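Regression test case RT-17, inverse folding.

Input:
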């Protein structure tokens, strides 16, 4: 019959292998993931969780190794623990790479959103410029037509001013002629001998 420590060691080894395979599968899923940032974040958190469980099992195996009675078994188990720690260190590097790629993906998505907003703002600015140009062209055409109307009005006012001066001169001459006629008549009536 196997000792309880041997059973515990076997269970720890099986769970370490299980968590190791799950971490590998999750890292592969991260590599294959082309979906949204939320999916990458979820996969990343699962990898962290599995790493914590793997770390815990390796620590349990190390504790079991230290509790072994026979030195040979103790050294074999401690060597296994060291191997698992080395493998976990390489996987931790992969995890950090996955986190880095996730952060880079997030940054790129943010840049993409900012560029999209800039393009949209540029389109709106362009549309505003087109509308402003149209308004300015319309105002320019209206100004040209008003300019023609104003020049015509200026000519008419100048013509009426000349006519007014001519009318005043004619009225003055007519008044002078009338007064001269009245004086002549008055003179002939009052002073017929002159």
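Golden output:
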């Amino acid at each position: 019959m196997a000792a309880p420590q041997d059973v515990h060691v076997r269970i720890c080894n099986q769970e370490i292998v299980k968590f190791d395979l799950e971490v590998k599968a999750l890292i592969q899923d991260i590599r294959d993931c082309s979906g949204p940032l939320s999916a990458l974040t979820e996969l990343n958190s699962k990898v962290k969780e599995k790493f914590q469980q793997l770390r815990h099992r390796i620590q349990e195996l190390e504790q079991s190794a230290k509790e072994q009675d026979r030195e040979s078994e103790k050294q074999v188990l401690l060597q296994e623990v060291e191997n698992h720690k080395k493998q976990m260190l390489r996987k931790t590097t992969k995890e950090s790479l996955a986190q880095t790629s996730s952060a880079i993906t997030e940054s790129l998505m943010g840049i993409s959103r900012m560029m999209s907003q800039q393009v949209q703002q540029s389109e709106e600015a362009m549309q505003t410029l087109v509308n402003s140009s149209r308004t300015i062209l319309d105002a320019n055409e209206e100004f040209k037509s008003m300019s023609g109307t104003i020049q015509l009005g200026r000519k008419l006012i100048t013509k009426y001013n000349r006519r007014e001066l001519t009318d005043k001169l004619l009225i003055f001459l007519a008044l002078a002629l009338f007064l001269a006629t009245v004086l002549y008549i008055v003179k002939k009536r009052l002073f017929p001998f002159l």
